Amino acid sequence: MSIWTDRHVTVVVSGGIASYKALTVIRLLMHEGAQVRVALTAHATEFITPLTFQTLTQQPVVTDEFTMTDPEHVVHVALADWTDVMLIVPATANLIAKMATGLADDAATTTILATTAPKYVVPAMNSHMFANPATTRNLGQLVSDGMTVLDPATGMLAEGYVGHGRLPEPPEIVAWLTSQLLAHETGLPLHGQRVLVTAGGTREMLDPVRYISNRSSGKMGYAIARVAREMGAKVTLISAQTALPRPEGITYIQVTTAAEMLSEVEQAFPTTDMLIMAAAVSDYRPAEMAAQKIKKQPNDHGLTLQLTETTDILKKLAGQKQAQFVIGFAAETQQLLSNATHKLTAKNLDLLVANDVSAPGVGFNGDTNQVTLLSQHHAAVTTELLSKEAIAQIVLETAIAQGAVGKA
Ligand SMILES: Cc1cc2nc3c(=O)[nH]c(=O)nc-3n(C[C@H](O)[C@H](O)[C@H](O)COP(=O)(O)O)c2cc1C
Q1: Does domain 187-291+303-401 have CATH number 3.40.50.10300?
Q2: Which has the closest alpha carbon to 221: 317, 312, 331?
């Protein structure tokens, strides 16, 4: 279940060149499970029709305050009362000025004034309009009135030059709004917790073009990062190379080698409440990286590589832990439980997620996983074959049930 599920979102659209992008924002919100209704300013209808919004949301669109289709309800008040979250996107300089002074001269501005729901404002305009002292003053007023404003993007404007005032891309707007909501949702199980997740397979360079790595796709770690965020945590994801899109709304650090991952994890660990090491970190790296591409050997005697052990990140960090709850992963191809149990105690972990990566549908690369959760003082739990998202949920819920929250 997402934080958006059944949330009532009113999207107010004003009349700018980016008005059409509100459609994509609405689609994304509805995809997340939100119920969306729309209010348009009269100028917005010059850019995009109410029919488009009505068809997309399957709800009547509020455009004209003085048309009474329902004699029992005053349209703007009914919409204002229905609203849990109000998103104003795009917010024109004109609408921002009206909001700053509390004007209510059409259905959109009257609805804005009449709702007590939190308001999120996404300005978009020409860079000179945005930099105008009047706009700066008005936005400052909105913030001191308790509204939250997203800074516009810098990029190519409709006027044909680059400037600060462009509407951020719709996925960015939804990610920002989601983060705002999550930060205020105190009832979530990981609210206020700082969760550090590692993911992906590290690459150990042999020469400038070749490396040793493994088949980890990063999907399990990324799923944990997403689910932890949805459970209210502040998430930092330290990711080795993957083909996955960067998850929104989290702090993201890209690394390549085991040594880089160690350095980043060590830096973040002291301010972490929960560490989840889902990355497949190389146990060995080439003793030396060749400065130039290694040439094929002239005779057919093969090539011997000298490898040296990398630092065991989990073991090192678990040794330094204060109040952190530390979760490790064990990918095994044989004697799963005995190997995993040894790892649990040898590395002083709070929880170990063991999976047999040789079994079909389990572990590396796929979208499913089946794991056994081992901990020092609780009975082992084996899951069914589930999506990595569902496994992530179980891992985090198990950690919470075993006292991960409130350890610090
Ligand atoms: C083609 C065109 C594009 C416009 N784009 C913007 C814009 O991106 N941002 C903005 O603040 N105003 C923009 N305007 C000016 C607004 O449409 C104008 O200020 C209008 O009064 C806004 O009305 P509203 O705030 O009630 O929707 C644009 C006007 C035109 C004609």
Answers
A1: yes
A2: 331
